[in-house]
């Protein structure tokens, strides 16, 4: 997609959307379900983002958390960022309130390269928000994909996002779900350790190593992406086939502020936010 598309005024005319519901996920994160007041679908691809505008407050780029197969509504998972204006104001809003959203922006996940492949979908912390759009899409179109493993890591049990949905994924016999926390608690009975410790276990759960049909999507802090990619490479997943969303680096979302400039000279918002490990030089 050319850069001119991102500056096309048609894409940035905000549309009003009504907040249908607000779910508190943790002390910092909430899940907002919205509906365009036009009655139309958002029309996004998994991995895209929107510019959320609040009149007299500001705007911010936010990844779409739901799948395009979720018809009649879309969801945004939002962490309240200290020092900002938009996310604290959004966190104070409730069902029935109105916000304004742009058309979907950015390059989503390369679906044409994922169809028919065995997939590893890995997220650390709030990386689960953008990855969830892909997870829900894959589950809704399960026959279009091969083996699927979801790998999730959180800092501690209290920061596990979407626990009710995770229970559904765990019960889904058509995929593998593995999770861990960096630090456990007295009540936590699951795995304790870094997310990287889960990747080498995948072959025990049917993952075929050293095959060209392997693809991975990894979303989280840079250090996590780097070391998860290293572990995936040990299983034979090529760097060109490991993808990341760099949406967490975005600020203005329009390519102007250059806060999201990546080591490869590209900007997360207008050139991404999805890149391969090879493109990121990892």
Describe this structure in words.
20% of the residues lie in helices and 27% in strands. With 282 residues, the protein is an alpha/beta fold. It folds into 2 domains: 99 residues, Elongation Factor Tu (Ef-tu), domain 3 (Beta Barrel), CATH 2.40.30; 166 residues, 3-Layer(aba) Sandwich (Rossmann fold). The protein contains 8 helices and 13 strands. The N terminus is likely disordered. The chain has a 7-stranded mixed β-sheet with strand order 10-9-8-7-11-12-13, with helices on both faces. The chain is globular, with a radius of gyration of 18 Å.
Distance between the termini: 24 Å
* Distinct helical segment count: 8
Topology as a string of helices (H) and strands (E): HHEEEEEHEHEHEHEEEHEHE
Q: Whole-number radius of gyration? A: 18 Å
Envelope shape = globular
Please list the strands of the largest sheet in the order they lie side by side.
10-9-8-7-11-12-13
Q: Give helix % range.
A: 10-25%
List low-confidence stretches.
Answer: 1-9
Q: What do we call the CATH topology of the largest domain?
A: Rossmann fold
Oligomerization: single chain
CATH class annotation of the largest domain: Alpha Beta
Binned strand content: 25-35%
Mean pLDDT: 91
* Count of distinct structural domains: 2
Query: Any idea what the CATH architecture of the largest domain is?
Result: 3-Layer(aba) Sandwich
Q: What structural category characterises the helix and strand content? A: alpha/beta
CATH superfamily of the largest domain: Nucleotide-binding domain of ferredoxin-NADP reductase (FNR) module
